[in-house]
Amino acid sequence: MTSIIEFSGPILTTADQERRGLWSVDGLLTFDRPAAAPDLVLDGWVIPGLVDAHCHIGLGPGGDVTEPLAEEQARTDRDAGTLLVRDAGAVRDTRWLQQRTDMPRIIRSGRHIARTRRYLRGFAVEVEPEDLVEAARKQARAGDGWVKLVGDWIDRDAGDLAASFPAGTLKDAVAAAHDEGARVTAHCFAEDTLDDMHDAGIDCVEHATGLLPRHLPRFVEQGVPIVPTLINIATFPDIAAQAQAKFPRYAAHMRSLWEGRAERVLAAFEAGVSIYAGTDAGSVIQHGRIVDELQALHAAGLPASAALDAGAWAARTWLGADGITEGASAEVLVCAGDPRGNLAALRELRHIVLRGELVRRNQPAPWGIN
Questions:
Q1: What's the farthest any 2 CA atoms get from each other in the chain?
Q2: CB atoms within 10 A of CB 330
Q3: Per-residue pLDDT tens for 18-48?
Q4: CA-to-CA distance for 167 and 149, rounded, in angstroms?
Q5: What letter would DSSP give residue 271?
Q6: For residue 345, with 0-12 CB atoms within 10 Å meaning exposed, 13-18 middle and 19 or more buried, which class applies?
Q7: Rounded to whole angstroms, how far apart are CA atoms 274 and 287?
Q8: Helical spans, DSSP H, in the chain
Q9: Which candidate in 33, 65, 129, 201 could, as Cys together with 169 as Cys, close a disulfide (CB 3.0–4.6 Å)?
Q10: What are phi and psi of 240, to 5 degrees?
Q11: Beta carbons of 229 and 207 less than 8 angstroms apart
């Protein structure tokens, strides 16, 4: 390990606080200048490693992936600046990657829990309502404090999105996961599903494309954040086109959800709902696209600094992970410019420091050590 790294540029300890003077000593951050001279001096704007709050390392378009591919996914995310991942469901057990000091930290959720034949094939543990509570308990024990439910999906008999589980059963399953010490998040596209989730005491909502004004007070009052995954929602028109001939009602619904995506995210932000950045990488979305998601949040109306906060300081606090604080693990990015005013600066990373080690991106870039 490199013993001492000095960061000579501005240090962004929060989205609105800046200071000078930061060192990594034996892999830990400190604001106190060490007695010994640094081994490396890195110049640039320093922020904590980015967070992808909805990511699937160990999952591919067909479900399970090989260990080499899971490792490649993790490396791709790391090299884009993602140093902390909240797994949102994967078939492959990635605990072995958690032991790798050169890979992003992963907070695992176990496998998705879905209704039988009501989700992508090969992705989820599929159960009927009578088995949902026990499945929630099992996945709570298998993960790192999170359970992922599939709250709705197309019901082919109805020809449209529909809730996966009855409201009462859902509430019991969330309570069971809470009893096991886990928080619960849920994939939710449709409008009515959100009412069931709030009634059940859900801890987070993924996508939330069906968010309506009536939902906003409950999101705020119950402290339920959303992870919009806007770069995934951008695929809805293609999904609708493929479904049009057989399921026209569903296709129209998906197009409507897509058309209102930015307006709904902005309404949530302005109402005070917590928003965190997640790419949904691992199925149809490629890994390494966290900056695309931050820019999509900004394009939806969030100020650039708020979009960055959703994938950096605030996201780390929400997940119980350290940012840039005394004694924290040295997991930071060094940018060429201030990313709070220009998110494109995140595409010009000078350096990535992970657990006190300098990581170089796997592409030609101005990575010289200053």
A1: 71
A2: 26
A3: 999 999 999 999 999 999 999 999 999 999 9
A4: 13
A5: H
A6: buried
A7: 24
A8: 67-79, 95-98, 132-142, 167-179, 191-200, 216-221, 230-233, 236-243, 248-259, 261-271, 290-299, 304-310, 313-318
A9: 129
A10: -65, -40
A11: yes
